[in-house]
Amino acid sequence: MSRPVKRSFTIAGHRTSISLEAAFWDALKAVAAAERTPVARLIGRIDAARGASGLSSAVRVWVLQHYREIARSRGS
């Protein structure tokens, strides 16, 4: 397993950074590419819906839920 990599983004007009393992960055980039949206915009959507949890944790959970929904829709 890889060590978390920190990246910075501007979300809702403020700078923030999140740390994710390479597998989560890869998954997030793949979803953003499939949706033809920038990674920062996708993170902004996750940020807007996250509630009180930390942003890095919210992104990890969002990625997991995203791929679970895909698996469920394929009958897995």
Describe this structure in words.
By secondary structure, the protein is an alpha+beta fold. It has a single domain (5-73), classed as Orthogonal Bundle (Ribbon-helix-helix fold), CATH 1.10.3990.20. Helices cover 58% and strands 18% of the residues. It contains three helices and two strands, in the order ββααα. The chain has helices at residues 22-35, 39-49, 55-73, and strands at residues 5-11, 14-20. A two-stranded antiparallel sheet has the order 1-2. The longest helix is centred in the last third of the chain and has 19 residues, at 55-73. The protein is globular and about 40 Å long. 14% of the residues are buried. The model has no long low-confidence stretch (mean pLDDT 93).
Helix content: 55-70%
Task: Give the helix/strand class.
Answer: alpha+beta
In the predicted model, the low-confidence regions spanning at least 5 consecutive residues are none
Question: And the CATH topology?
Answer: Ribbon-helix-helix fold
Radius of gyration: 13 Å
Offer a quick outline of the entry.
The chain is α+β, with helices and mostly antiparallel strands and 76 residues long.
Question: What brief labels describe this structure?
Answer:
2 strands, alpha+beta, 76 residues, Ribbon-helix-helix fold
List the helices and strands and how they pair.
Elements (H helix, E strand, L loop, with lengths): L4 E7 L2 E7 L1 H14 L3 H11 L5 H19 L3
Antiparallel strand pairs: 1-2
